Amino acid sequence: MSELWQLGLDELSACVARGEASCVEAVGASLDRVAAVDDQVGAFLSLRSEAALREASEADRARAKGAERGPLHGLPFAVKDNLVSPDFETSCASRILRGMRAPYEATVLARLRKAGMVALGTTNMDEFAMGSSCENSSVKPTRNPWDLARVPGGSSGGSAAAIAAREVPVALGSDTGGSIRQPAALCGVVGLKPTYGRVSRYGLVAFASSLDQVGPLTHSARDAALLLGVIAGNDPLDSTSLDAPVPDYTSELSGSIAGLRVGLPREFFDAKGLDPGTREALDAALATLEELGAIPVELSLPLTEYAIAAYYLICTAEASSNLSRYDGVKYGLRVPGDSLDEMYLNTRSSGFGGEVKRRILLGTFVLSAGYYDAYYRKAQQVRTLVRRDFEAAFERCDLIATPTTPGPAWPLGERVDDPLAMYLSDVFTVSVNLAGLPALSVPCGRSGRLPVGLQMIGRPLDEPTLLRAADAFLERTGFHRDVPELSGTTA
Amino acid sequence: MKIGQRLLDELAMLARLRFEDSEREGMLRDLEAILDYVGKLEELDTREVPPTAHLFDVTTPMREDRVERVLPADEALRNAPEYEGTALVVPKVLE
Within a 10 A sphere around the Cβ of A272, how many other Cβ atoms? Predict the structure, then answer.
């Protein structure tokens, strides 16, 4: 029999339902696993061990009385360090917020709590979700469980690494330009970015508000479906959240994708710099989808090569505005100064890391008088073209399949001095955010010994089709059951 | 696109950021490289294209003008670096 820490959310839930394990054992197994391997991986920034065990024990008592709140009651999850709660500190891995404990709770966390889930702790990230390697964390780097000398991807690198190392069955992340899908791909796990507005952003620390979206990182597509069902839905506290009914995502996992038209945009497959091992894994994955009855449709998304440029103009503009709130007055770090302006300058210059400052400056430039039309407005117009590109593509197919990243995880330190090279690692993910579409990454084999991700992109609100295809693919190939060997294994 | 020291100073001032002399060259080089890269958008003719600010048609939802959640002042101030009573304390702004 598998150890408890090896189980995904659905399996763990079944195990508890059958009485083979208690919630305290389930949460305890996660905590033990963290204790065994996280000094190597570095996925977690904080743990609430005692509180989590206490909540698990309350869940066991509720279950004993037949008062369980649902299949996830008493099961553990991890939280990216940019979702706020009075239950723990939230820092966005930044010096400027260290020690901040919000007086209110993010809607996604409130929904998981209502479902009875137990927050285990917070996970590492690139500062304010700005980065693609987790190396921009002001606290520490996180390492890729498949090769500890390599990055886990970012910005939700801590959440992805925690899932890959089987420290927790599910973790929340956020995705502005690929920050769930890219680390999921590099760590060989499942990562889902829902449609913009599908999940409430209330209590998600804002980076680029027109692009940000919260989503799950999980072992399997089924677990992603389970979790999405809990966190999705309209929220009066987020006026951009969509008022669309939430389907039962798990009931859509029929295992059948016969007749599904899968669009293959040539710009992604013929991209310069696509790693040959990634290409090989992708070709095999597409062959599998065909065996399962999918119909390949070759198509073109000609705006792909412009997406990164438009994305970095829009996200930095929004970030420069969103991050103006960190001023040393209301919360977080204050570095004193003789005047109010001096205090702002001292606080912000000392509190923000290099990449955050770079993006604030770029965004300030993009929005400044004289440059606004040439840069910001231009980027918003290109955003319209990117959306139209996808709309045309979806007239010919039901979902689009691409590599998630141009290559597998790279060595720590390799790209830290070249921001543009780091930005280009998001080349396959950012256009999805510009168009607000749902997309996920599933493991689809290896390049050498490193995981490769298959990205699937859907129509707005068509998460059911994405999850059904992902589930059918993983059940056929079993790639999601591959687990890296870590020396600290608790067995 | 050339940014230059003067524009860098202006932007830094607007963003309330200060850069040490040792940081300035690198920051300038990075910004200029990024702006050169995004310059490729000029290849696209967007004269007739409306900008996208909102992805989906969402109208501002209305609700009754009724007090719902109130954050008590002490809770709201709990994270403030400095406060007195129910007021945030900042360096003197008036002489």
Answer: 6
Q: How far apart are CA B19 and CA B25, in angstroms?
A: 10
Residue B73 lies in a domain: no
SS (H, E, C) A328-374: CCCCCCCCCCCCHHHHHHHHHHHHCCHHHHHHHHHHHHHHCCCCHHH
Q: Judge whether residue A337 has pLDDT over 90.
A: yes
- How many angstroms away from the CA of B74 is the closest CA of chain A? 10
pLDDT tens, B20-67? Answer: 999 999 999 999 999 999 999 999 999 999 999 888 877 788 889 999
Answer yes or no: are the C-beta atoms of A198 and A222 closer than 8 Å: no
| Nearest-CA distance B21 → chain A (Å) | 13
Domains identified in chain B, total number: 1
Residues in chain B within 8 Å Cβ distance of A385: 44, 46, 49
Domain holding B19, by residue range, is 4-43
From A48's Cα to the closest Cα of chain B, the distance in A is 20
d(CA B33, CA A436): 28
Whether A179 is a known active-site residue: answer yes
- Can you give the residue ranges of every domain in chain A? 4-301+389-481
Taking only the tens place, the pLDDT of each residue in A354-402 is 999 999 999 999 999 889 999 999 999 999 999 999 999 999 999 999 9
Q: From the candidates A85, A94, A155, A159, which is the catalytic residue?
A: A155
First to last CA, chain B: 42
The 8-class DSSP code of residue A201 comes to -
Give the chain B residue nearest A353 (alpha carbons): B17
Residue A375 has what DSSP assignment? I
Q: What is the DSSP string of A248-289?
A: -GGGG--S--TT-EEEEEHHHHS-TT--HHHHHHHHHHHHHH
Does the domain made of A4-301+389-481 have the CATH classification 1.20.120.530?
no
Over pLDDT 90: what percentage of chain A?
Answer: 95
Q: Do A380 and B79 touch (CB under 8 A)?
A: no
Residue pair A298/A69 in contact by the 8 Å Cβ criterion: no
**Preceding amide of A155 cis, omega within 30:** yes
Nearest C-alpha in A relative to B58: A240
Q: Is the dihedral of CA B43, B45, B47, B49 positive or negative?
A: negative
Reported ipTM: 0.95
- The position carrying tokens 């090896």 is A6
Assigned domain for B19 exists? yes
Q: What per-residue confidence (pLDDT) applies to A1?
A: 60
Residue B16 placed within a domain: yes
Could you tell me if residue B12 is inside a domain?
yes
Helix (H, G, I), strand (E, B) or coil at A190: strand
